[in-house]
Write a structure and sequence with these properties.
Blueprint lengths: L11 H8 L7 H9 L4 H17 L11 H10 L2 E2 L3 H19 L1 H9 L7 H11 L9 H13 L9 H13 L1 H14 L1 E6 L2 E6 L13 E2 L2 H4 L3 H9 L8 H7 L8 E2 L1 H13 L3 H10 L16 H20 L5 H10 L13 H6 L9 H43 L3 H53 E5 L16 E7 L10 E2 L3 H18 L2 H4 L3 H15 L2 H14 L21 E4 L3 H8 L8 E4 L4 H13 L3 H9 L5 E4 L4 E4 L6 H6 L4 H18 L2 E2 L1 H12 L4 H10 L7 E2 H14 L1 H4 L4 H11 L3 E2 H14 L15 E2 L1 H16 L3 E2 L3 H11 L8 E5 L6 E6 L6 E6 L6 E3 L16 E4 L3 H4 L1
Antiparallel strand pairs: 1-17, 2-3, 4-5, 6-7, 7-8, 7-9, 10-22, 11-12, 11-22, 12-18, 13-14, 15-16, 18-19, 19-20, 20-21
Length: 917
């Protein structure tokens, strides 16, 4: 007898035990799927991409096309792993990529131009991490080519609030990989990307972080489940914390440091390492505040062996653990490309739009700002010059009178001797007069120049700022906490470039001290950049101004006022004592959230003169949004609609009020909707919405089904609450509708607040969606037997695992997949077995009508869809898997769907020629 089913919701361990490991589905994948900390399909796709790159490119950097057809055939034969829906999409993406490589010579040429970067340590680092090459191994051209090819072959998914760049990046990787390869080549060679817009060059430097992957994603803290995570095992081993077989014991020990019900891999790693080293969060914070941010560097590590040493070890080991965890599912070079191009969203032609400009305060009336210092000192210098000029003017007037007097005497001279004496006096007075006139004119000219000096210096500084500073996207910057499906505002970080061209010489600004010292260095450099023609005669005054600025920058009033100016600029309330409350400040002068938009990114990345063409709309209902999307596709040129039919992977970029993603017109039944000539509202109602409502309206729960569904709901709750919940939830009649069942559950939840935190309505609705309809065991045997007959497979005479009397929709699908795998001794197929099963059940009215998929969310494993909620019979926006068998409503977006929030719109960028050509 195999592992009991369906008590274990993952059937893969059972299948693997019977047929052994085949293909890419291994024990690591199983552990990821069971623990839920990382996405198993991402691990498979990454491992496959690295293997393909190594197979195709030999050690001399030669790409062997003869090896491509066998890899393509291998993929085709294993495209549909049973039970791994999103893995199918990733396999299809990799298949399309290999086929493009086979038929597109330009891609081969581009790959051949990629080489190991020359003296670019950051580029070398990303190549090594992407292929997991040790530091002591020399890099070769083949390594750079393999890193680039595997980056292309690894499907990109969004981890943080970078949707404005991630959605276009996914589109580029899918539809125009030559752009991706050119970018990677430029990033490795020069450490930056360049775009020219209206004659102005803009740069996006190679970022120094690959992000955090799924390190910070919230998961339920269930030690017995999380202990099976290969990522945790690998990270803990890299930190030297614990051996494989003791992970569960460690997780149980750190329970006091976890705040249930949710945790994250990062929280677990931090808690485990702190406990091992015997330090606390307070210890880490105190040492970090005392020492340099570069504490983990061996040169700066404390030598006393005390708390400082432990914190240094903690930070160094934690970084190793985090990296080990991330590398199981993320491709570093692909992620740094994504985050590097994201910097184009903050491309600005005018420095006055920069956050740095707002913080410095260039206006003369900005209290404690730079402008106030400049204007005050220059005004003092001007006043001094004017006083000096007036003093000279008085002397000039006196000399003029004296000169006139001597001229009169010259006319009255009577003797030659007297004339000679008067002429000598006249010449002396004339020289004095000329000198005073020269000094007066010089001081007047100086005063005139001083009157313009403030504006001249500020213009000079503003012109130089882009040479010394750069705003770059920072995926690790998390200044604002949001809901799980609301993209956090884009995080941007300020780099100090030191006036150097080499990107590796640029340094990030991380705190007030570094911000101030960077500014001081900038103003001193700005003084040196002034040439003699510009400042002739004002050298002393300019030096005084720069000195005054440098002294002012180091004062507390300046830095505090900088925070206030940032708050005012972004219409935020200022924080009292900002230096003591940095963690409460969303927008700092050197690290700030920004309204990065996909429109801005598209314009910058693709060098558009203006904004891309957009059709947008504010909506009051879900139906209105669905109709808007369908009608906009209907209005597209026929040639464009034909391309969606011929190339189903093609997409359009679009956005919600808080998220940017890809609209995929070829998804069914959305495709049927825009191909239909009927009035859109009528067709949506009659052919999409009403069939779903009718299906769920006609479902009723008898006593056994009621109890089975009650059991499934209770599994969401902690063990100690389950029996209490089941005892309270009772059927009031022999037949209960699905909407009534949901109301009963909510009523029980409201009786005890302890249920609310463990059973949010979204999870309840998700469970109903993936569970209904319920099917008796005998019906499953009949259905599965008939289905196997359509596949020319023999149905087993004996089921090798136990089945409950009543099966959920999810269990039905997994049981069929397990039987098919066991009968064929395969865990993946060249045909979409699960889709065929769903279609088979739908024809027999044992499966709901299809959900209305229309867009890729960017997030792992989900599409956006319009779906009738089984428990409310109302149409809503959902996130679902590719088969439409699992998902949850986007309840956090309801304000953007019911008309209650009127400030922003939904929009589609309807001209892809503008952003791909």
């Amino acid at each position: 007898m195999l592992t009991p089913y369906p008590s274990d919701p993952k059937f893969f361990p059972m299948v693997r035990a019977e047929i052994g490991e085949k293909g890419d589905l291994d024990e690591t994948f199983e552990g990821m799927e069971t623990s839920g900390l990382q996405e198993g399909s991402s691990y498979i796709a990454l491992k496959r991409a690295r293997r393909f790159a190594k197979t195709l490119i030999d050690s001399d950097g030669v790409l062997d096309l003869s090896r491509l057809p066998p890899l393509i055939e291998e993929l085709k034969q294993n495209l549909y792993p049973v039970g791994m829906e999103w893995g199918v999409e990733k396999g299809l993406f990799q298949l399309r990529a290999l086929e493009k490589l086979l038929r597109n010579p330009e891609l081969l040429r581009l790959l051949g131009t990629i080489d190991v970067p020359y003296r670019e340590p950051l580029g070398e680092q990303w190549i090594r991490l992407s292929l997991e090459i040790q530091k002591n191994e020399p890099l070769k051209k083949a390594d750079a080519m393999r890193a680039a090819l595997s980056a292309w072959l690894t499907p990109l998914r969004q981890n943080v609030g970078s949707c404005f760049a991630t959605a276009p990046a996914i589109l580029i990787q899918e539809e125009h990989p030559e752009l991706l390869l050119r970018d990677i080549k430029d990033l490795l060679e020069t450490g930056r990307l360049k775009r020219v817009i209206r004659g102005i060059e803009h740069q996006a430097p190679l970022v120094a972080t690959m992000g955090s992957g799924s390190l910070k994603e919230a998961v339920l803290f269930r030690p017995e489940v999380l202990a099976r995570s290969p990522g945790l095992e690998r990270a803990l081993a890299a930190m030297g914390v614990i051996q494989k077989n003791h992970i569960l014991t460690l997780l149980q020990k750190i329970i006091p440091a976890i705040t249930p019900p949710y945790t994250s891999a990062d929280e677990i790693l931090e808690a485990a390492l702190k406990q091992t080293l015997g330090i606390t969060h307070k210890d880490v914070k105190e040492v970090q505040e005392r020492l340099s941010p570069s504490l983990p560097s061996p040169l700066l590590r404390p030598k006393d062996g005390g708390k400082g040493q432990k914190v240094a070890d903690y930070l160094e080991k934690l970084e190793k653990g985090r990296t080990a965890f991330i590398l199981l599912t993320e491709h570093p070079l692909l992620k740094v490309w994504e985050y590097s191009i994201a910097s184009f969203a903050e491309t600005k032609g005018d420095f006055a739009q920069w956050n740095l400009y707002a913080s410095l305060g260039f206006g003369p009336n900005e209290s404690n700002g730079i402008g106030e210092v400049i204007h005050r000192l220059v005004q003092q210098q001007l006043d001094e010059a004017n006083r000096k000029m007036l003093d000279i003017q008085d002397e000039y007037k006196t000399a003029y009178l004296h000169l006139n007097l001597v001229e009169s005497r010259l006319k009255l001279a009577t003797t030659e001797k007297e004339l000679q004496w008067i002429r000598a006096d006249y010449q002396s007075k004339r020289n004095e007069f000329n000198t005073l006139e020269l000094l007066r004119d010089r001081e007047r000219h100086k005063a005139e120049r001083l009157a313009q000096l403030s504006n001249f210096l500020i213009d000079h500084f503003i012109d130089l700022f882009p040479k010394y500073f750069q705003e770059v996207y920072d995926p690790d910057l998390q200044e604002v906490k949001t809901g799980p499906f609301d993209d956090a505002p884009a995080g941007f970080h300020l780099l100090f470039k030191h006036g150097r061209e080499k990107v590796s010489a640029w340094t990030p600004i991380n705190n007030p001290e570094e911000f101030i010292e960077s500014l001081v260095s900038f103003f001193q450099s700005a003084e040196r950049e002034l040439n003699e023609e510009q400042i002739g005669g004002l050298e002393r005054e300019i030096t005084e101004v720069i000195t005054a600025i440098s002294l002012h920058l180091r004062t507390k009033p300046f830095i505090e006022s900088a925070f206030d100016r940032m708050a005012r600029a972004h219409r935020l309330p200022p924080i009292k004592d900002p230096l003591k409350n940095l963690d409460k400040i969303e927008k700092k002068p050197w690290a700030f959230t920004s309204g990065g938009t996909m429109s801005g990114f598209i314009s910058a990345y693709f060098s558009l003169e203006g904004s891309p063409t957009e059709k947008d709309r504010w909506v009051e209902t879900r139906e209105e949004l669905l109709v808007f999307l369908i009608d906009e596709i209907k209005r597209l040129p026929q040639q464009q609609k034909n391309s969606f039919e011929a190339h189903p992977e093609r997409s359009l970029l679009m956005h919600s009020p808080t998220h940017a993603f890809r609209l995929i017109p070829s998804l069914s039944p959305f495709k049927e909707a825009w191909n239909e000539e009927l009035f859109t509202y009528t067709w949506v109602r009659d052919f999409l919405i009403e069939p779903q409502k009718s299906f769920y309206r006609n479902l009723f729960l008898e006593a056994p089904s009621f109890d089975r569904l009650k059991e499934e709901v209770s599994k969401i709750l902690p063990q100690q609450l389950r029996e209490f919940f089941k005892d309270r939830l009772r059927s009031p009649s022999p037949w209960v509708s699905i909407t009534h069942f949901r109301e009963l559950v909510i009523e029980v939840m409201r009786q005890d607040n302890s249920f609310i935190s463990y059973l949010p309505l979204d999870e309840l609705d998700a469970l109903l969606f993936e569970s209904l309809p319920l099917i008796p065991q005998h019906a499953f045997f009949e259905l599965a037997s008939d289905f196997f007959e359509t596949l020319s497979l023999q149905f087993p005479t004996e089921i090798p695992f136990p089945l409950l009397p009543i099966l959920t929709r999810k269990e039905l699908r997994l049981a069929m997949g397990a039987l098919a795998a066991l009968q064929t001794k395969k865990n993946s197929f060249p045909i979409d077995l699960e889709q065929k099963w769903i279609s088979f059940l739908r024809k027999r009215e044992k499966e709901p009508p299809p959900t209305i998929l229309f867009a890729d969310t960017n997030w792992e494993g989900t599409y956006f869809s319009f779906q009738v909620n089984p428990g409310t019979l109302e149409l809503d926006l959902w996130r679902v898997n590719r088969l439409g068998t699992q998902g949850a409503p986007m309840s956090s977006w309801r304000g953007w769907l019911d008309g209650s929030k009127r400030t922003t719109t939904w929009g589609i960028y309807t001209n892809p020629n503008q952003y791909l050509g």
